[in-house]
Automatic annotation (TrEMBL):
Residues 8-421 form the Enolpyruvate transferase domain. One of its GO terms (molecular function) is 3-phosphoshikimate 1-carboxyvinyltransferase activity. Monomer. It catalyses: 3-phosphoshikimate + phosphoenolpyruvate = 5-O-(1-carboxyvinyl)-3-phosphoshikimate + phosphate. Keywords: Amino-acid biosynthesis, Aromatic amino acid biosynthesis, Cytoplasm, Transferase. It is an enzyme of class 2 (transferase). The active site is at D314. It comes from the Bacteria. This is 3-phosphoshikimate 1-carboxyvinyltransferase.
């Protein structure tokens, strides 16, 4: 297995222009496909998760003109439902943002489809989405284990109505349902059961649907109504914001390592909830400055925090390694769904943090990290989880050499992460 040895980095300084947001790139590709007119997306992320969405769209006959070098794509909108009367098998890797929305988009169209992915995708639940689509008349079968991909979808144009969806495991199910709602035969009311997790991702969905011309009535995230007669219309040009989750590694590097780092592409104007990662760093003692389109961070004397991080599940992993350089313990709460992401992130993070010497308590839905003055070198297993590879790189910034196993796993969302980190390392 490949490994990357990171020597201590004495200081970070500089500017990072962020790659496009994964969440926004995959939503934008689907919305541009469903809209009338063609859409030019700029700053599209180039990573595995986006490639899986693009491959699926190609298989489904969607036309686009992709200039990979320029991170720009022009998508020919269908002006309505995807894939009428086709048969196709789609391989979606481990991209939740492709699997969940495409399952919904295909279930409400017409044709026969198989949706599958890598082994971990087959362990990531999708039952709540399937259960929500069933009352509308969607026929979806589980090909291996009940509640999990691969799925066989036999689609027959669906009408609207009222559905319930369980929001307690992943917000992506609700996102999927919201995005396809305007394509149903009638209006749709969605009631959310259970506590809705990862809520800010729903704001990304609603904000982007609005940009493509569809309004959703949001009753306090407990129910949503999408009136019939609305259609997605291309906004013409759409600039994909920088990825706020990817920004977290560089902002934390500055907080830990000294110097000043500015990330460009996210700021106060951002749609992404993960921009609030910078507020957590500020609460820990880092110096943070905001602009509409940038966040700048500098070192502070860091202290541990005890916070509910349900709203920033991805960036919260960066807090877990930042906590190693703070004074006092840090507790990251309400993160049960870390267990159903790229790996069981609660167990994986606890295991790897212990390897470097931290005292860690792994709860059912929380992690408590007690830093140690005596960090030690470790080979960090990454479990095919890009975020574990990226957040453990922060050890080097804190002066502790570290070896990252399978560093190539960052390709899911950030293929050149380690080069970008090197570019600000002094
Ligand atoms: O909608 C999205 O773009 C995402 C939602 C979150 O997932 P959950 O809603 O499953 O927590 C997040 O972790 C994921 O990386 C992207
Ligand atoms: C949870 C993640 O990915 P996915 O979109 O596959 O859910 C992630 O990127 O951290």
């Amino acid at each position: 297995m490949e490994q990357l040895h990171l020597s201590p980095i004495s200081r970070v300084d500089g500017v990072i222009t962020l790659p496009g947001s994964k969440s926004i790139s995959n939503r934008a590709l689907l919305l541009a496909t469903l809209a009338s007119g063609s859409t030019r997306l700029t700053n599209l992320l180039d990573s595995d998760d986006i490639r899986h969405m693009l491959n699926a769209l190609t298989t489904l006959g969607v036309s686009y003109d992709y200039d990979r070098g320029a991170a720009t794509i022009e998508v020919e909108g269908l002006g309505g439902r995807l894939a009428r009367g086709q048969q196709a098998e789609l391989y979606l890797g481990n991209a939740g943002t492709a699997m969940r929305p495409l399952a919904a988009a295909l279930a409400i169209g017409s044709g026969q489809f198989v949706l599958t992915g890598e082994p971990r995708m087959k362990e990531r639940p999708i039952g709540h989405l399937v259960e929500a689509l069933a009352p509308l008349g969607a026929e979806i079968r589980y090909l291996e284990n009940p509640g999990y991909p691969p799925l066989a979808i036999t689609a027959a144009d669906l009408g609207g109505g009222e559905v319930e969806i369980d929001g307690s495991i992943s917000s992506q199910f609700l996102t999927a349902l919201l995005m396809v709602a305007p394509l149903l035969g009638g209006s749709l009311t969605i009631r959310v059961k259970g506590e809705l997790v990862s809520k800010p991702y729903i704001d990304i969905t609603l904000g982007m649907m609005a940009r493509f011309g569809v309004e959703v009535e949001n009753r306090d995230y407990q129910s949503f109504k999408i009136a019939s007669g609305q259609q997605y219309v291309s906004p013409g040009d759409y600039l994909v914001e920088g990825d706020a989750s990817s920004a977290s590694y560089f902002l934390a590097a500055a907080a830990i390592g000294g110097g000043t780092v500015e990330v460009r592409g996210v700021g106060t104007d951002s749609l992404q909830g993960d921009k609030h990662f910078a507020d957590v760093l500020a609460a820990m003692g880092a110096r943070v400055e905001w602009g509409r389109d940038f966040i700048r961070c500098g070192r502070g004397t860091l202290k541990g925090v005890d916070m509910d991080m349900n709203a920033i599940p991805d960036a919260a992993m960066t807090i877990a390694t930042t906590a190693l350089f703070a004074e006092g313990p840090t507790t990251i709460r309400n993160i049960y769904n870390w267990r159903v992401k790229e790996t069981d992130r609660l167990t994986a993070m606890a295991t790897e943090l212990r390897k470097v010497g931290a005292l860690v308590e792994e709860g059912e839905d929380y992690l408590r990290i007690e830093p140690t003055p005596q960090l030690r070198h470790a080979e960090i297993a990454t479990y095919n989880d890009h975020r574990i590879a990226m957040c453990f790189a922060l050890l080097a910034v804190g002066g502790q050499p570290v070896t990252i196993l399978d560093p190539g796993c960052t390709a899911k969302t950030f293929p050149d992460f380690f080069d970008r980190l090197a570019s600000i390392s002094r």
